[in-house]
Amino acid sequence: MTPLRIKQLARLIAVIMVFGSLLTIGTVAWMPLKLDVADVNANPTDVQTRTKPASATPPTVADYENYVDAALRRPLPKPPPPASPPVVTIVQPVETTMQFLGTVTEAGHNYAMFRTSDGVEFKRSGQIVSGATITDIRAGVVQLRQPHGEVATLRVPQPRSP
After folding, report:
1. 100-136 burial, b for 16+ CB within 10 Å, e for fewer?
2. What is the average pLDDT value for the chain, to the nearest integer?
3. Any idea what the Cα angle at residue 71 is, between residues 67 and 74, rounded to 5°?
4. CB 146 within 8 A of CB 94
5. What's the DSSP call for residue 139?
6. Fewer beta carbons within 10 angstroms: which end of the chain, N or C?
7. pLDDT tens across 57-96, in order?
8. Tell me, what's the pLDDT at 38?
9. DSSP secondary-structure letter at 48?
């Protein structure tokens, strides 16, 4: 946006805000007011008896003793027991001679190409290669679930430049 457009936009926003304010003030001014009109024939002492009179004396410490006793003289809660240390499972990496070479993707027919000790293999989603299950095949990317549950994402290796 150019500075001229920004200034025009700022002026437009200012005008809209002024009209909105005027509309709000006008709406409030035209709204009917609902006031409770006091009964002219009522005795003024009736109004005073309906409200609670203010105390002439300030509160004393004795007025607050119930609150202090209840809140401060109770036993403290016991601390929670210490948390048990988390269980750590050490997973040994699975050694494999598999190499991810690439993918062949087509509507409904996705294949991943691997070089294993048995040669080049084409695998589909759900099949097993070197002990890992193929969970997803996309263009240049394959996700494998290892036997111990870990998910690994493999990408097509970039060609080496000469």
Report:
1. beebeeeeeebbbbbeeeeeebebeeeeebbebbbee
2. 79
3. 135
4. yes
5. T
6. C
7. 788 888 877 776 665 566 778 888 888 887 776 655 555 6
8. 58
9. H
Longest dimension (CA), the chain: 108
- Residues 145, 153: Cα–Cα separation, whole Å: 9
Q: Give 125's DSSP letter.
A: T
**Are the CB atoms for 100 and 129 separated by under 8 Å?**
no
Edge-first strand listing for the sheet containing 119-123: 99-106, 109-116, 119-123
d(CA 18, CA 114): 69
Measured between alpha carbons, how far is 140 from 134 in angstroms, rounded to an integer? 14
Residue 134 pLDDT more than 70? yes
> In the numeric block, which tokens belong to residue 82?
């210490």
Q: How far apart are CA 97 and CA 117, in angstroms?
A: 6
Query: What is the DSSP secondary-structure string of 57-119?
Result: S---GGGGHHHHHHHHSSPPPPPPPPPPPPP----PPPP---EEEEEEEETTEEEEEEEETTE
Distance CA(141)–CA(149), nearest Å, equals: 19
